[in-house]
Design goal:
Blueprint lengths: L6 E5 L3 H12 L3 E5 L3 H20 L5 H10 E4 L10 E4 L5 H12 L7 E4 L6 H6 L7 E6 L8 E6 L5 H13 L3 E5 L7 H17 L5 H12 L5 H8 L1 H15 L8 H8 L12 E2 L6 E2 L2
Parallel strand pairs: 1-2, 1-4, 2-3, 4-5, 5-6, 7-8
Antiparallel strand pairs: 6-7, 9-10
Helix pairs in contact: 1-2, 1-3, 7-9, 7-10, 10-11
Bound molecules: nicotinamide-adenine-dinucleotide (NAD).
Keywords: NAD, Oxidoreductase
GO molecular function: NAD+ binding; oxidoreductase activity, acting on the CH-OH group of donors, NAD or NADP as acceptor
Pfam families: 3HCDH, 3HCDH_N
Length: 293
């Protein structure tokens, strides 16, 4: 039987974590937001406030809803602060060893009946579930970026996920006003299995000199009616996340067609990770983005 979710923990307060906290609080859930960095938590709370205000100016929510949502969110640097949550969504960096350690530490304090979810973009839910004490109450709940704007959430069952966990997660996501696509547990699921090879191919197109950054983005915006060019989108997702997803596809499906472009590797090695570090395929430090190639 599906359980009732009241209190939601979110681990990682980066661009996805603050978005998930935002929509969960607007949906009326109590939210505990966790990060290893106090600075990240502080800036996440400021981002949530700013994004709620933007929704007010677009007349999507009321001032009262903003106040209520903010009052429902608390921030903590300690995982113990999540012990009495009914559902915990992990959305820390896309590194398997980091996630596994989080799950080990979390499960030692979290109440046994709670559901644990990962917002991973690509890592096997079955494998992550196996690093917890509750594979049957573990599930992939994959939000899209930016969370308050995008309609879709992918739900991914691991091999052991039980029906109650699936139904409870489905009800939670529906209460947030999102649509669900159910994906089997294969590398990168549905959206990123299709999207990331396209972005990687755009980077190869740049790497091989077929077009420059502006030409490639203009081509896909004006020639295929994509709302953002693929390189602009890569910067938006984060180039480290893009590289991690390509590595998971490459290793998980053992097919050379998924090999990450060496230029993507170079940008990540430079620490040019896109918007979040102010530089990627575009430089965001000035008034308007300037292509870096
Ligand atoms: N960026 C996207 O478009 C997107 C979309 C869907 C899913 N995701 C997935 O969401 C996750 C987070 O991505 P993001 O873009 O928000 O990354 P991000 O770099 O913006 O944020 C990651 C946050 O995790 C924190 N963190 C690192 N280790 C931690 C730990 N041990 N405990 C608690 N917090 C920790 C960091 O301090 C940081 O604030 C990844 O798994 C990513 O694949 C990303």
């Amino acid at each position: 039987m599906a359980a009732v979710i009241k209190k939601v923990g979110v681990i990682g307060s980066g661009q996805m974590g603050n978005g998930i906290a935002h929509v969960a609080a607007l949906g009326g859930f109590e939210v505990v937001l966790n990060d290893v960095s106090a600075d990240r938590l502080k800036s996440a709370m400021a981002t949530i406030n700013g994004n709620l205000s933007r929704q007010i100016s677009k007349k999507l929510i009321s001032e009262d809803a903003r106040k209520k949502a903010l009052a429902l969110i608390t921030a903590t640097e300690k995982l113990e602060g999540l012990a009495d949550c009914d559902l915990v969504i992990e959305t820390a960096v896309e590194k398997e060893e980091v996630k596994r350690k989080i799950f080990r530490d979390l499960c030692s304090t979290l109440k046994p009946e709670a559901i644990v979810a990962s917002n991973t973009s690509s890592i096997s839910i079955t494998r992550l579930a196996a690093s917890t004490d509750r594979p049957e109450r573990f599930i992939g709940i994959h939000f899209m970026n930016p969370v308050p704007v995008m309609e879709l959430v992918e739900l991914i069952r691991g091999i052991a996920t039980d029906d109650a966990t699936f139904e409870t997660s489905k009800a939670f996501v529906t209460k947030l006003g999102k649509q669900i696509a159910v994906s089997e547990d294969f590398p990168a699921f549905i959206v990123n299995r299709i999207l990331l090879p396209m972005i990687n191919e755009a980077i190869y197109t740049l790497y091989e000199g077929v077009g420059n950054v502006e030409a490639i983005d203009a081509a896909m915006k004006l020639g295929a009616h994509h709302p953002m060019g693929p390189l602009e989108l890569a910067d938006f997702i984060g180039l480290d996340t893009c590289l991690s997803i390509m590595q998971v596809l490459h290793e998980g499906l053992a097919d050379s067609k998924y090999r990450p472009c060496p230029l993507l590797v170079k940008y990540v090695e430079a620490g040019w990770l896109g918007r979040k570090t102010q530089r990627g395929f575009y430089d965001y430090r000035g008034d308007k983005p300037i292509p870096t190639r």
